[in-house]
Amino acid sequence: MLIDIISSPTVLRTLAVGLLSAGLAASGHAQSLAGRCEALPAVRQALETLSADDDAMTSAARKEKHLTVLRSLLERYPDDLFVHRRYQDVARGGMDADPRDLIEQYRMLLGKRPDDPVYLYLYGRLLIGRKTLEAREQMEKALRQNSNFPWPHLALANIYGIPRYKDKAKSNEAIKAFTGLCPSSLNSEAYWYLRNIDDRAFLRESAEKLRARLTASTDPKELTFYDTLWQLEFSARPIPEHAQVRQQVEADLKKLRQMNLSKDKGSLETLRGGYKLVNNKEEMRWAEDQIVIQFPQSQLAKRVVQDRWQAENPYPDWNGPQEKIQAHYAKLMQATEDWVRRWPDDVWIRNQHFDAVAGLKDAPLPDVEAASDALFGALEKDPGGFYSIPPTSLRVAQVYLKRSIRLDRIPDLVRRGFKEVEDRAARDKDSDWSPPGEKDYSQENLKYVYSMGWPILAETYVKTNQLPKAREVLRQMEAALAKQKPDEKAEAGEKLAHGGREAIYWEWMGRLAEAEKRKLDALAYYQNVLAVRPPRSKKPTKDDPDEVADKAQKLWKELGGTDEGWTNWAKRGESAKAVAEAVGGLWEKKDKALLDFELADLGGRTWRLADLKGKVAFINIWATWCGPCQQELPYVQKLHERLKDRRDVVVMTLNIDQEIGLIEPYVKERKFTFPVLPAYSYVEGTLSSISIPRNWVVDQKGTLYMEQVGLRQ
After folding, report:
1. Which of 107, 59, 66, 109 is closest to 90 using CA atoms?
2. For 426-458, what is each residue's pLDDT tens digit?
3. Is 588-709 assigned to CATH 3.90.76.10?
4. Residue 355 is inside which H or E element, if any?
């Protein structure tokens, strides 16, 4: 999994010398500890205290508290693998963290003991996703030093799951090696990899071992692994046997309820997940009520409250009537006002509140300003608690501009947004997560943020009559567009996206020209917009007019043009747009033979690639946890109903939930009737990186002909 990042450089530089000294204080011990699968009882108990009483804290305060505890533990247990692992995970956590100082810190520790398997492993695990080949070398060297050391195997399973170095067989081999050395270890990371193994016999054996341990246990911390057990058992059994698995889950839930674990947050979360698997909404609501009542400040309680609200107030169709969209914002504002009172320092809730207030057309301007101030205040308290693309400062600047408030603050906000994304791109520049030839998403984010921020700056400077500054911004846009221009071999989506950015540039060249009283130039620029922009997704309306076309037509008439002349000119761009519309907007043409498959759907029918031959297949790829997928699936259902009687067409879906037991209750509740094939491993093996929702059109030969990624309505 992609390495996240760490605490502040100042803290880490202070720690480096202390940890180096601590790590060397007992240099003979690391080898003897290398083979241990679980922490010593005293260490385990100390680590468990880290999450005992910090629910009300911001993530930044929680992180600093945990680091303080871990520094103390490292003084007591300087070579303890589990303390170091937790220290690394806490230090590199948070949206604003930077891994580079932490990596250097452990490089120094390894330098003093270059052949110690523990420190080879600890240093190497920090390199995964950044210098992954070197990380693999560290793990292999650690195993040469101590063949019974289990943890490098788990790291290798991680490495062979990274898209650039993906090797399913080696990943499976590594996780089997770990479980062979630690057959009774309760490690959530190990089970995460284990459940993806395509070996039902091995999965059944692993599930049986875990069930035996949990059956004999009364420790609430261990009993939370029932959720993991259920996932394994669903994965280990064919779909026709899932009804039996659900019966076993129901029996387990009954047993857990009799153990009176309702005072333990982890146990309540396990019960909630189990009731969701068996689709027992009444008991699931009981578990959620207990979570909210007994642990009101917890992250889990926040999720429960917000999930319930979202289920009762689904997102409207953003292309639908404005009245429904405004009604949704009004409800969200009322809900977030309550959430803010309950969790005043939560950045995500402050962000939702700002979005609701900003989305309401009739929201008083002081309310918009207050909501943005509160959001920035929460971010200042908890800088690592939230990150978004576009950055928060850019979104706020956009709202200020739309409402014509605080225009003097907008340039600084835009530059702040630019710097935030530039800094992250600099941190990620040595990432080797993506396969060669794939897009560099840090650079794509930069491109997107610039294309959003420059027009905000240009409009701000035009509004405030700072026209030379507006012209300078447009020069920057022009230079960037020339550099980013896709070549002829680029995919249709990339060309359309670039056309959209070009259209924005020409629009602001036109607006600047109008501000400078150059009407003929402005008309030419607006005509350029109409020629290069992608097709609009819907016809202009009173609430959503085509402002550029209206401006161009108005200038045309002011300069003496006739209606007939305008109509003839407007047809010039239609042929180019017809081509774009013919390929379905952002559908990409492909010519890729699909890998063969043999997958059972929820009804027990086995599908093979051969079943699609001679037909055109529409295949949707989705997951129950994917919000955009939830919006898209009703359209898939409509398409299925329209085409279900056709013998030459098939509509089907590939689900990539790793918790297979959640799929059937989700589908039944929504009355979807299209074929659903649980297919995580197949999709993972087919795609270099998984992003959903995703739609495929497969031709009669079983060749992927067209693909569309993302929600398109």
Report:
1. 66
2. 888 888 887 776 777 788 888 889 999 999 999
3. no
4. helix 347-359
The residue written with tokens 């674990």 in the block is 261
How far is the C-alpha of 107 from the C-alpha of 177, rounded, in Å?
A: 27
Taking only the tens place, the pLDDT of each residue in 503-532 is 899 999 999 999 999 999 989 898 888 888
Closest CA to 135 of 168, 169, 99: 99
The token pair that represents 653 in the structure block: 């879906």
Instruction: Report which DSSP code applies to 164.
Output: G
> Given this model, what pLDDT does residue 52 score?
63
Place of tokens 């009283």: 517
Partnered with residue 433 across adjacent β-strands are none
Q: Provide the token pair at 451.
A: 């294309």
Of the ranges 167-171, 433-437, 617-621, which one carries the lowest mean pLDDT score?
A: 433-437
Q: In whole numbers, what is the pLDDT of the chain averaged over residues?
A: 86
Quote the CA–CA distance of 214 and 274 in Å, as a whole number: 15
Compute the average pLDDT of residues 273-280.
Answer: 94
Predicted confidence at residue 576, as pLDDT, reads 39
Amino acid at 288: E
User: Tokens 């170091």 — which residue?
Assistant: 84
- Strand 598-600 vs strand 606-608: parallel, antiparallel, or unpaired? antiparallel
Of 461, 429, 457, residue with least CA distance to 445: 429
**What are the residue ranges spanned by the domains of the chain?**
1-196, 199-312, 322-386, 388-484, 491-497+517-583, 588-709
**Does residue 152 have a pLDDT over 90?**
yes
Q: Report which secondary-structure segment, H or E, holds 621.
A: strand 616-622
Written as one string, the DSSP assignment of 559-609 is TT--HHHHHHHHGGGHHHHHHHHHTTTT-EEEEEEPPP-EEE-TTS-EEEG
DSSP state of 670: T
535 upstream amide cis, omega within 30 of 0: no
**What is d(CA 217, CA 261) in angstroms, rounded to the nearest whole number?**
13
| Better pLDDT: 156 or 690 | 156
User: May I ask the CATH architecture of the domain 1-196?
Assistant: Alpha Horseshoe (1.25)
